[in-house]
Sequence to fold (599 residues):
Amino acid sequence: MNSAAKLSPRAGDVLVMVGTVKGAFLFLADRNRREFKMSGPHFLGQSVPSVAFVGGVAARILVGNKSEHWGAMVSWSDDFGANWNEPTEGNIKFPRGGGDALNSIWTLETETALGPDTVLAGVDPAALFRSDDRGETFRLNEPLFNHPDRPRWNPGFGGLCLHSIVVHPQNPKRMYIGISSAGLYRTDDGGETWTTCVNGLRVHPDVPGATLCPHKLRIDAENPSRMYLQSHPGTYRTDNEGRSWISIEGGLPSEFGFPMVAHPHRGGTIWTFPLTADAYRVPPNGQPKVWRSRDGGASWEALSRGLPERDGYFTVLREAFCADTLDPAGLYFGTRGGQVYASNDEGDSWRMLAEFLPPVLCVKTVAME
Amino acid sequence: MNSAAKLSPRAGDVIVMVGTTKGAFLFLADRKRSEFKMSGPHFLGQSVSSAAFVSGAAARILVGNRSEHWGAMVSWSDDFGANWNEPTEGNIKFPRGGAAALNSIWTLETETALGRDTVLAGVDPAALFRSDDRGETFRLNEPLFNHRDRPRWNPGFGGLCLHSIVVHPQNPKRMYIGISSAGLYRTDDGGETWTIAPGRRIRRTRSPSFGMPLVDRFGNPWMINREQSA
Fold:
């Protein structure tokens, strides 16, 4: 069933990890990022809404897979997918007797200022879990789980998902999380207390009473006071660590979209993938385009070389668009139509890396050291 | 938003109607079927779970579309998609006061031995509807809806769908329907009585909580494993 042999990355190679509704696929290329070799499917038939890479002494691939039989778990491979450890008894669990049960693991954050062994997991129902043993065991962040706002949080169409986790690069006691459709929260004490940080964001237009619906939060590469947010209604930037948000959607064809990507090294450079709001959720005019800003969202340019010129109606989900750390930065996104596109020139041009995968839920990449 | 001009089929042309989760697309080619022209999306943002063609005096395209606002309905175009009639008040409805509400229209059968103006619709929750005015108004087949087996019918992952309708080509009083995941039924009296179609007994698995009987579009009973389901 596996379409390629074991992957054996060398220093400088780029690994792209793709999770779909029916399994995970791995792609490997050298630093030119022109020819990719595929390995997969892994976890065939299982939904894989999150993937991540843990560096350090030994490379480890993490996936948040969901077995219909065992439920959702974080599995890992220390040999690039040749063998997988599946903790079928579950390594992300809610307190017994509380009535909450894990639905999905929507994001896995690694390589943060918390150290190479720490993994943060954002899940549905909305909660943050932390691992300090490279993703093998996790514990619940109870202050967020018991937050007084929780009764007001409303699930979006995709559930009540904690999908965005940002750790301050110099001060890891400061973290930010995003929950659909509940809002953004910040901690300054390593997760002991969480305060909302949504000043300036519009409320969800369809829900009276009204909840906020962030879709993806990213931090600027050079200025950690600055972050970018693709929200359900609007595209935003903060320059003061989330204390207030300003709209940066002027120049974009739509305020709606799911992903947001920040450049790995260059401040002010971001990418998004706008969709026609709200009931449609397809690329405007059937013309899929990535939009890039080099000035923190003050102006935008459309990037479409290599993407379908017409009749393109695919969607790119929240977790399915990412950048690598090389120079120039490589970009990767997956679609609900099963395509994966890659750019090795910061989005100026695109090529198709895979065409017929199951619907793609997440894409992450790492450059091997 | 439309990517192509109005379609104007000529005799011998082939039309392909495609429904998606976010709209319908029409493709037209000559009889060689090597070059297709596309029209669409129609019903952008709406799920279109069925499509059909009604010929006769005038050509008509039917779609079973579902608006998040109005719910599911059978809409039609008499000019190959240039204009659509959308019965937003609904033309497939369950009896008032009952618990059943229409989820989706999963199949539309036309061009059967029942005549050119007749359209049969299979829907979720499992029921058969019939139109004799080319898809504009429908009425429920009550004997199937009130079938004594109904309490035993289990929804599949895709719902409790009546997805297959076969009309005998010479004797239209004989019809067969398939429901996921409930079984196959047959009538010999034009829909007054329905009997479960004899067939292979569906195998019971050792762990029934992980197995699910269903009938595919070809009438084959299957027991599938939950982990392998679509």
Remarks:
- The radius of gyration of chain B is 18 Å.
- Chain B has one domain: 45-198+207-225.
- Chain B touches chain A through 15 residues (CB under 8 Å).
- Residues 45-198+207-225 of chain B form a domain with the Methylamine Dehydrogenase; Chain H fold (CATH 2.130.10.10).
